[in-house]
Task: structure prediction
Amino acid sequence: MRVGFVGLGAMGTHMARNLRRAGLLAALYNRTAAKAQTLGAELQVPVCASLGELAAACEAVVCCVSADADVTEVVAALAPRLAPGALVLDCSTVGAETARAAAATLAAAGAQFLDCPVSGGVEGARDATLAIMVGGSEAAFARAQPILAALGRTVTRFGPSGSGQAAKATNQIMCAGIIEAVAEAMAFAHAQGLPLERLIDTLGKGAGSSWYFVHRAPNMVRNAYPAGFRVRLHAKDLRICHDMAARFGVELPVVERMLAEYAELIARGWGDEDISATYRLKAELFERTNLMRPPGERGGA
Ligand code: NAP
Result:
């Protein structure tokens, strides 16, 4: 199958490399052309000047862009030039409604669509170990198997269009609660004067551990948060969760709290850092109370 890739960001660059390794990658497109030129030269894969050109050159297109409006825009530009029966897989995290609308646009153009949001971070994209949550027809899912197998390790179809995004939204709510707990616990441990690296080694094997604790608590020790999963993007995902819950008249406390904390991080210029930057706010809680104590009674490492 000739596969094209759209969206060479933090995730997409690795995913495109994995499609190349699997012998599937036929063409690349990126809005900022220089990124596509660089990766095209590295992988020896043709670069298309437009989405229409890419659509015409491929039997399947994988897309990994930012937000709802971007997916809608990319799908609208691909649709008129896709061959009948072409397959579009969208790995971006967007709302279930956006996925259903994309599926309808592509069905009208005679093409098939799968919403395929992913989990596992930049590392999972690099190592092709992503968990992929799929929504769409069984027939499209069956056709997409070689592509999905090249990108991830756990690939599950949850039902019709939109159900992959609903599963991903569920995951994003858990990520919010876990990163909040990890950041809070690490700020607490720091204030107790504990040796933090040894703590991560030990608690990383305990019942309270998680992927975020093992892989992102070290950022908190170094107080450096290089972009893995950006605050801005998780805030975008949590707004999706907020809207999906609001359809039931429900407001979820974990979602609302993290949206407020991310708004503060973004306002203070940390929106492009990894979400482990939440630690900055948790550490400040202890710094404030510590500074209110007499100097001799101040704790912390
Ligand atoms: P990123 O580094 O910001 O890259 C976004 C990519 O999408 C860039 O190549 C950008 O092109 C392209 N793009 C955005 N809007 C576009 C448009 N309207 N038309 C064409 N191209 C457009 O983002 P990322 O971290 O790779 O994330 C991509 C998606 O995966 C997001 O939906 C995110 O929520 C999801 N995700 C991310 C992670 C993670 O850990 N990073 C994990 C799971 C899922 P330019 O180069 O021109 O800007």
About this structure: The mean pLDDT is 95. Residues 163-191 form the longest helix (29 residues).
